[in-house]
């Protein structure tokens, strides 16, 4: 099985940014743990702060992966284009959020990606990514 994790804006700062919300571990360290937890699954990773790059990566993933885990960060609540890109591809996408978006600011309560995703995993910290991988089995 091949899984692609796509992280959006500011997620390159995990472990440094708002550690009270996102924790103290950087994503690269967590990714190493994930790969050890799932040795029979190939896990590729892409991160960008640029909306168009996230869309291009979704488009380019078609036919190459069995599933995509997408944490679009703040674009979750603002990007019709990323929501449309998820809808346009056939590869199943699981939306992931580290924090519980429903316990935060009201504008974060709306996801433009969720309606087009296979499902959403929200609020379990970095463990949300592990749970998303399990959803593909």
Short description:
With 137 residues, this protein is of the alpha/beta class. 32% of the residues lie in helices and 19% in strands. It contains five helices and five strands.
Question: In words, what does this structure look like?
Answer:
With 137 residues, the chain is of the alpha/beta class. The chain has one domain: 3-Layer(aba) Sandwich (Rossmann fold), CATH 3.40.50. The protein is built from 5 helices and 5 strands. The chain has helices at 19-22, 27-37, 51-61, 80-88, 127-135; strands at residues 2-7, 42-47, 67-71, 93-97, 119-122. Helix 3 (51-61) packs parallel to helix 4 (80-88). The model has no long low-confidence stretch (mean pLDDT 92).
């Amino acid at each position: 099985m091949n899984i692609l994790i796509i992280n959006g804006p500011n997620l390159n700062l995990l472990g440094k940014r708002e550690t009270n919300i996102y924790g103290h571990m950087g994503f690269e360290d967590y990714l190493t743990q994930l790969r050890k937890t799932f040795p029979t699954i190939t896990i590729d990773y892409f991160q960008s702060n640029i909306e168009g790059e996230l869309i291009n990566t979704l488009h380019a993933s078609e036919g190459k992966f069995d599933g995509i885990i997408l944490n679009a960060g703040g674009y979750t609540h603002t990007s019709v284009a990323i929501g449309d890109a998820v809808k346009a591809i056939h590869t199943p996408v699981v939306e992931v959020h580290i924090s519980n978006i429903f316990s935060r600011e009201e504008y974060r309560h709306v996801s433009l990606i969720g309606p087009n995703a296979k499902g959403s995993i929200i609020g379990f910290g970095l463990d949300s990514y592990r749970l998303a991988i399990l959803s593909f089995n």
